[in-house]
Protein 1
Amino acid sequence: MGYDVDRFVDEINEGLLCGICRDVLEDPLQAPCEHAYCSACIMAWLVQHSICPEDRRPLTAPLLRPLFRYMRNDLDKLQIRCRNCQAGCQVVCNLETIHRHEAECEFHTQQCPSVGCNAMLGRDQFEEHLQVCEFRRNLCPNGCGLAILNSEDVSHNCVAELRNALELFRSEMIGKLVEQRQELELLLDAQRRHMTQKQAFLQSQIESLKSQMTLALQDVQSLRESTRRHELELEQGALAKQRLLAIISTLQAERSSPNVVNRTYLCRQSSTPVESSKQ
Ligand SMILES: [Zn+2]
Ligand SMILES: [Zn+2]
Ligand SMILES: [Zn+2]
Ligand SMILES: [Zn+2]
Ligand SMILES: [Zn+2]
């Protein structure tokens, strides 16, 4: 933000005005296109833009340079009134030295720093005012630890104040506890629901495993039965084989014995071989 044009004694050259605030340049910086701005004005502009506000050419902070020396000299020589002229200061000096004057200007005033106090104070009134400012807070001299306003000095009652503070604290804590409890209950509910769902899921898995087991057991049972049947069949087969072997060996024995040979021979002689084979 520049210096208000009204504070200057003479007419100001257009070239010494900031292109943004239109006041006289304060801490000026110059773009490569030679447009000059207060450093606060152009830095604030470049936060959101990257062009010169006057001609829209590309511009970034590192491209900014100090003002040309001849312009700087013109600026420094401008005659400006003290900032406290409304308070009665008649001083007019060049821009280069105005800060030095204002730092020690006897008409300088500042607002009381106490919150709520609007008093404007000269240098000599400052300390004196702070002692009596009714908005100033000091620690209670009785050691309750509370900051009290000057105006409350007499009416302040440590015990009552502490009791109020304690009550306030207690109700705040109760509120917080209730809130936390509600949150915890919600959390517990959610977990409970989750566990119930999980349990149901596990239960259904157990059920399906159980039915799979039953089926497998049935399979084993039927396998066992068919094995048993096979064994029986094998046993019967073995018995039949033994019987056949026995018959075969009997037949062989009969064939090799002499009666049998004769009988065969007789049979061959007879005219009725069918009869003989029946014997
Ligand atoms: Zn400006
Ligand atoms: Zn420009
Ligand atoms: Zn002054
Ligand atoms: Zn005050
Ligand atoms: Zn107290």
Protein 2
Amino acid sequence: MKKTVLITGTSSGIGKAAVQALCCKWVERHATMRTPSAETELTTLDDVLVTRLDVRIRRASIRLSRAGIARFGNIDALINTAGFALFGISKAPHERRSRRQFDVNLSDSGCHPGNLPPLP
Ligand SMILES: NC(=O)c1ccc[n+]([C@@H]2O[C@H](COP(=O)([O-])OP(=O)(O)OC[C@H]3O[C@@H](n4cnc5c(N)ncnc54)[C@H](OP(=O)(O)O)[C@@H]3O)[C@@H](O)[C@H]2O)c1
């Protein structure tokens, strides 16, 4: 039986590469991004469900996991790549930028396993 993998941040980078690299023979892929209407590549792949998710919105994560379960029956693994790095000097206060990065990349307000149904 195929396993289902939920992947966040799939509009570019590691997330997109993960969706493309996982073999559709063994894995069903639930790819999430903030702007699915702009996606032209992942939407053409077999067994890929592309849906919208901003990981800062907790309720959206819960809604999304329900959509994935309705389609695939379960979520077997989470690849949470949604996030961003901080480089260089910015005028915005450091603490605010760091807090925002922590929320998006790590915190349990986003697509944290704690907001999803238990993974097997
Ligand atoms: N690449 C590396 O060598 C490396 C090394 C260490 C750590 N990392 C970290 O690993 C993560 C992924 O890296 P990457 O190279 O794949 O970066 P990337 O190409 O910039 O991809 C990041 C993805 O996260 C999405 N994203 C950002 N904020 C989001 C939000 N609030 N909700 C949902 N999606 C959001 C972006 O979507 P949008 O297109 O909508 O902005 C984009 O699809 C980043 O946190 C990065 O800092 C990367």
Protein 3
Amino acid sequence: MNTLDTMTCASSVISIAYFGIKVILMIFTIIKIIHLFSVFIYGGFLITDNLFLNKMPRNLDEEEHTKARESFMMFVRKVVPPSLVVAVLSGLYLIFQVFGPITDDGLSTFQIILSIKAFLGIWLGLRGFLQVYFGIQPFVFKSHILPFALVVTIILLTQLMYV
Ligand code: HEM
């Protein structure tokens, strides 16, 4: 193999490696976008429910309210639980990509906050999944206030972990 062949071969290897890195970065970005949209759907429902829908009884009598809420919830049940599952699965992929090695100094602030966020998110996901698909409710609460508070906390933690 002459020098020219060696150089062509080396440049091909570099091009392939560069392409590989680009694809990996793209997969990360695509999964992160999926994560964001799924948490928008899940969090969006909780925000709508806690800020607006729970005010319906003020203007509607009980029968009207039950009917209005049920017509809304019919669609919520189809979309929101699968979004939560997607949020957790995509989150698990992201955490494996960004967590990084634990050094001799112990966990970094980023790793500590990310772990708390992941724990809360996984707990929320497991709770929702068990409740919707298996009828198991580990913590009995009738309203959506706790999941709402957890989503707000998780979003705050997600921003704080970069500080
Ligand atoms: C329903 C619960 C969840 C909510 C509301 C949520 C929210 C978010 C948001 C808003 C971001 C984007 C941050 C930004 O780019 O500014 C994000 C990123 C991220 N999420 Fe979640 N998440 C949830 C569940 C999870 C779970 C369960 C995990 C892990 C097991 C996870 C791991 C991650 C990671 C690692 C990133 C950062 C990716 C990066 O460094 O760019 N998330 N999350």
Protein 4
Amino acid sequence: MWPAALGRWAEIPICNLCLHRKRPPLIGDLVARGKHSQRKSKERSQSSNRWIERQRRDPYVAMAQVQGLPSRSSFKLKEINEFYFPHLHAKLEEKCKCSGSNRPNRRKLIQPGALILDLGAAPGGWSLYASTQLKLGLGGAVVAVDLLSLDETLHSCNSDITSRIRANLQSNFHFIQGDFTMNETRKRIMGAFANVSKNIQNNDSAGAIGRRPNLVLSDMAANFTGDSDTDAIRTLDLCERAMAFAAGTGCFNPSYSPRDGEGVLEDGGALLCKFFTCGRENEAELMDAAKRAFGSVHILKPKASRKESSEVYLLALDHRKKNAK
Ligand SMILES: C[S@@+](CC[C@H](N)C(=O)[O-])C[C@H]1O[C@@H](n2cnc3c(N)ncnc32)[C@H](O)[C@@H]1O
């Protein structure tokens, strides 16, 4: 117990999306704060009150609690998968019919046999939702990456997200704790995909897929500094890095040739990536890169994403690597 600390519980950092504080306060946290921090803590408790009030009124937070989900983020991916994607796909199909070409018939972004890379996965909302959409028999698998462990942010909750995902995917779920921007972490990601592929071949599953992911998700957000412009630029940088990893750094070059692609995504694969709007000038490089490397590019604002937040999702479909003109 930490009776003296209870009054200052509101000062302990909270995950910006899930309901839970990252860990209980340690006496050291409170002692370490000198007198000069008292004014700041008053300000913080006001904003903390606003945050609690907003969480209380948020229907997605309530639904996430009722359904035992680790975060309200799951609803964003669900909406994109089950609502936005079918609409976009139908429109693209219509276009293809007019031009006489054929598109594979797909109803959802997450196909049952998909090989998914989930970047910025903690506390696990997207991985958990994706695991319910995949079928083991078809080789569906998720490799998830985060700086934090999946269950670290769920201290006050009894649910164990990793084992719930494993219940759906067994050994076809790999979690890598590390910084996605580091080479070491990227090597571990590729190693995990190689393992998934081996498992699939050993099980001799129907429709086994190759070693490359066909869907890269990034819900990564840089640690909030309190300055929204800085936060947006730092998160945009993470989004650009996810794009470069998925489609190859070459797509940021105006003379990009799809044949030179060196990214991890399979041909025809998709990228779904979060960023905070920060002006066309800042976003131009990302948008141009996406248009070079993908057949169609969309900016989505799911209903589950708070209206007052500048958060949006870039959905890039049909990665064109070798087949492009
Ligand atoms: C908004 S949360 C993700 C929520 C998650 N999609 C869900 O459904 O529960 C953003 C996550 O990005 C992670 N992140 C930020 N920078 C990262 C990096 N360089 N490498 C890996 N993860 C990172 C953070 O640790 C944080 O857990």
